[in-house]
Amino acid sequence: MTEAPDPAGTARGAEDVKDGEDNEAVEGAEGTAEDPVLSDLNSGVLRLTLNRPDRLNAWTPAMADRLSALLRAADHDPQVRAVLITGAGRAFCAGADMAALSAISGREVRVDGRALALPAELRKPVIAALNGPAAGVGLVLALFADVRFAAADAKLTTSFSMRGLSAEYGAAWLLPRLVGRGRALDLLLSSRVVLGEEAARIGLVDFACPREDVVVDALDYARTLAASCSPWSMAVIKRQVLRAAQSDFATAADEAADLMAESFAGPDFAEGVGSYLDKRPPRFPGLPPRG
What we know:
Shape: globular
Strand content: 5-15%
Oligomer: single chain
Order of helices and strands: EEHEHHEEHEEHHEHEHHHH
Low-confidence stretches: 1-28
Distance between the termini: 34 Å
Radius of gyration: 19 Å
CATH topology of the largest domain: 2-enoyl-CoA Hydratase, Chain A, domain 1
CATH class of the largest domain: Alpha Beta
Mean pLDDT: 85
Largest sheet: 6 strands, mixed
Structural class: alpha/beta
Number of strands: 9
């Protein structure tokens, strides 16, 4: 729960950013300028924008509550086929707001360690577009997304060890699965800054793009999922991958066999094959509400 590095590569607090700087908002987004997260639904993609640009989108309880509510609502909304999370202005998320951290210094505060895993638990694909620095809690939020795009020059850091913190919000579980044990320990122990290009090379993110293209490329990717891919298939695949991380091969293969039989009998399979044979875009039904 720490702040992002400054352009020189050393950590600084979001309070060092000049007031009024980077007040970029999302055109057509729902909400007011004071809302900590803005939302905009277009072509089946719900774009959620962390909206404290004057503080490098530093994480607050209000931002956490708002983002969680929007993600849960998206999971129930049949119009939403994919979700994209990004930041307003020049940062993705500078970690926890330092003023909030200062207020709890010296106290033992209980938190929900699974709070940032919600993107991985949704039935719908969640894409992160790291348009700028991401640190601490901001980086962990992005890592729990299904696919990550990052600006090639974005500065990413775990930051925890430099603030006397543990590996927060499941980072110790997630990082080794993304980059391997040695690299995970490197990133967590050193809190060193990783640029987007290196992050893509080691598997911390999936795509590195020029800064001016990162949100556009991520939106294009999300729109392709929304337009061309079965919501049922994507929900099942997400669940399979999450379960397979905790199971042996035989269990995963047996589950796949059961799901294959279910898919052959389902409407999405019929539409997927029919649209291919008819040479037309698929018209997949949306997901039903959660039971």
